[in-house]
UniProtKB/TrEMBL annotation:
Name this polypeptide is given: PHP domain-containing protein
Domain Polymerase/histidinol phosphatase N-terminal: 126-206
PANTHER family hit by this protein: PHOSPHATASE YCDX-RELATED (PTHR36928:SF1)
Species name: Nocardioides guangzhouensis
GO CC term (a single one): cytosol
An example Gene Ontology molecular-function term: phosphoric ester hydrolase activity
Amino acid sequence: MPPGRVWRKETPEEIVADGTEGGYAAGPVAALRRIAFLLERAREDTFKVKAFRSAAATVLPMPAADLAAHVEAGTLTDLPGIGKSSARVITEAWHGRMPERLARLEREQAGPLAPGGADLLARIRGDLHSHSDWSDGGSPIEEMAFTAIELGRDYLVLTDHSPRLKVARGLSAERLARQLDVVDAVNTHLDGSFRLLKGIEVDILDDGSLDQTDAMLARLDVRVASVHSKLAMESPAMTRRMVTAVRNPRTNVLGHCTGRLVTGNRGTRNQSQFDPRAVFEACAENDVAVEINSRPERRDPPTKLLELARDTGCLFSIDSDAHAPGQLDFLAYGAERAEAAGIDPDRIVNTWPADRLLAWANR
Ligand SMILES: [Zn+2]
Ligand SMILES: [Zn+2]
């Protein structure tokens, strides 16, 4: 059962069609989650989004009678995590009315994110790069999984950061081991048609080694390796560093290869310097996918390099690099770029079914 459905009202006369005649039947939690999803997808300030996510977390476990009492008494804002605007949404949804805030977002923000790439997007079955609140993401693991299910995905690889990336609360081997138990627990609560897969975005250290124990890397389903430090290294050293990481038999995906930032509130950053031909040839030889990072502020690799990787015979992975559930929809941006570059969908590993993906990643 999708999580948005848990608050459906029970009496038949209260069940009205979603969004028609101003009616809304999915209930307060679904309304709050949908608002948060659309705000994240539109790259809104996390502070704004958090208000709706924490309100949903407060309402979800509440007995129906308690919530009804607070709605009737107008005391929702006395509850932890519920501010004025979430209280309004809860009240409207509780009464079976389409919340005004949600109606506006559906009107203004729910359309396709990118004008192109729709055919390719429809062939994408999963996502190989995502973060939860265990590292620098904003939502719990299960919320990321539920949203991926709602988006029709067959699988999602959870790839929180590795220990060296302290600013992002990178996971030690011990925390990663605990996370793997949580992933197992989430999967046992699902019906098997969707799989949350075990992964990591592992830092490529200065010498090209990977920032996690080999024993832990061996326990994962998919490993994305990325450079996050010393991006301004001289080209020969950076090339050696990246080629060494790509040749590591544990590496499956080379994450955001240039590290550039083209827009957004983190400012801009030039692409790092390396010999792209040498790096992409190593990817092709070692069956490592070049990531097409879909985040609008990254658009990595740049188009010229994307075309070079295409001509070098590389595999690709179109990744959202989502740090919030709504950002899982970013795949539309990567699909548009891959389609424009004329990349054969069968060379994009996340158009593959999970079993084929897992066989490739653990060959
Ligand atoms: Zn990264
Ligand atoms: Zn990432």
